[in-house]
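Severity: low
Component: inverse-folding endpoint
Summary: output formatting inconsistent between runs
Steps to reproduce: submit the following structure tokens with default settings.
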């Protein structure tokens, strides 16, 4: 979950400049091929409270599965398996993975409400990880862990039928058209999540950006192995709009799409509350993994 702000805007502009530079290269780069990421790294100092949480709770909650040296790739040889879940959580309870947990409000509330379920929070930004550590540590929760890794890379090394549900709530919208390839909801990730989910497992998605809602439908609605099990109808424009042109969408041709009622298991975070106060419509999606045709 990523809230638009000046820091994100600056980081995305830096990424845009990097992309432009790479596009002008005529010889093979000496470094590894640049990966398309759904996030940008930005530094942030931890305030004393979050630093204490980091110092006190990382050994309990933060998984040691990253490649190291500030890299967010999964370390070589690691696999998220049922055996790893048993050894890490100490049980074989169902596992729910949230991609982009932000400040951790939702995933920690869910873990507190459902001690019979295991939770894995995926977040790349230090302050978000630290705040999640703080919330979980203050309650002494035992059924939640945090991983500071690239979600797309983790799902590549997740063994089949390992996860009960995947949640992706309010991902970075990447509003510029040329950045839509960076949106986290993509066919490759959907395929890897499908492989990771247990029978009838679901991927729950939510966004308050209309253009992103259209993107989700375009990627997921006709993708083999997924069934949209929503029960309500939402009207959306049939074309994408670029950053700063959202008002143009109202005059575009629209069509009806199937979406879901608000997921009752998602708490009303400060981020979602701000979106509602700004008049944005929340779009919820529930896609169930079915047998590939």
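Observed output (run 2 of 3):
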């Amino acid at each position: 979950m990523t809230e638009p702000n000046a820091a994100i805007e600056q980081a995305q502009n830096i990424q845009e400049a990097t992309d432009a530079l790479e596009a002008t290269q005529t010889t093979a780069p000496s470094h590894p091929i640049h990966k398309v990421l759904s996030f940008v790294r930005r530094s942030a100092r931890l305030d004393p409270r979050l630093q204490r949480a980091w110092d006190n709770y990382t050994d309990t909650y933060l998984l040691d599965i990253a490649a190291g040296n500030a890299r967010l790739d999964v370390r070589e040889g690691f696999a998220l398996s049922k055996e790893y879940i048993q050894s890490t959580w100490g049980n074989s309870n169902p596992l729910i993975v949230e991609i982009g947990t932000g400040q951790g409000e939702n995933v920690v509330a869910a873990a507190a409400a459902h001690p019979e379920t295991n939770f894995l929070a995926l977040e790349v930004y230090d302050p978000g990880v630290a705040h999640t550590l703080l919330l979980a540590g203050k309650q002494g929760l035992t059924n939640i862990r945090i991983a500071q890794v690239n979600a797309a890379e983790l799902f590549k090394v997740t063994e089949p039928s390992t996860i009960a549900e995947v949640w992706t709530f309010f991902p970075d919208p990447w509003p510029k058209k040329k950045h839509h390839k960076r949106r986290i909801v993509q066919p490759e990730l959907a395929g890897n999540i499908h492989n990771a989910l247990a029978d009838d497992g679901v991927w729950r998605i939510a966004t308050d950006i209309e253009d992103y809602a259209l993107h989700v439908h375009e990627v997921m609605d006709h993708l083999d192995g997924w069934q949209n099990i929503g029960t309500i109808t939402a009207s959306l424009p049939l074309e994408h709009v670029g950053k700063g042109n959202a008002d143009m969408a109202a005059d575009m041709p629209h069509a009806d799409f199937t979406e879901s009622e608000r997921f009752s298991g998602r708490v009303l975070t400060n981020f979602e509350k701000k979106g509602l106060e700004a008049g944005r419509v929340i779009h919820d999606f529930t896609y169930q993994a079915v047998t590939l045709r």
